[in-house]
Amino acid sequence: MKIDNARAYIRLYEELSLERIDELESFVDVSVRFKDPFNDIVGRTKLRKLLKRVLSSVSNPVFRVTSQSWDGDVLYLRWSFNGNIKGLGNWRVEGMSEVIFNEQGMVIEHIDYWDTGEQFYEKIPIIGGLLRIIKNRLKVL
User: What confidence tens digit (pLDDT) does each residue in 13-50 have?
Assistant: First the structure.
């Protein structure tokens, strides 16, 4: 059951659409925790709301899992996310997720790890230029 739910969870993200968000109920615990560099929320309802917000603010979102590995009840995912954000243009993020399942095979925690400096803040006009200057000054080689 855990592996089937993991496959369904990955497929949901890879085929993310407003019509599919309600499928979360089948394999995500009601008190799931989701954390990324900008959010730390608890609850399936809040996760559903977050995903709807992403879909409304990012046009043509494409999420792809490029590799996965299991360790007990923890699934580690390597992924890429592409989309177009108004004012920022095309946005590409590469990251990793730690997805934890309970004994019933339901997702109880999902934590995303990705570099906000390089993959987000450096792409913002003016702020990005300042960050790149600072980054170059801190380089050792």
Answer: 999 898 999 999 999 999 999 999 999 999 999 999 99
Tokens of 39: 């959010």
* pTM of the predicted protein model: 0.85
Alpha-carbon distance of 93 to 115, in angstroms, equals: 8
- pLDDT, one tens digit per residue, over 86-134 is 777 888 999 999 999 999 999 999 999 998 777 676 677 777 777 777 7
The DSSP annotation for the chain comes to -HHHHHHHHHHHHHT--TTTGGGHHHHEEEEEEEE-SS-EEESHHHHHHHHHHHHHHEEEEEEEEEEEEEETTEEEEEEEEEEEETTTEEEEEEEEEEEEE-TTS-EEEEEEE--HHHHTGGGSTTHHHHHHHHHHHH---
Beta bridge partners of 64: 80
Amino acid at 67: S
The answer to whether the Cα torsion of 38, 44, 49, 53 is positive or negative is positive
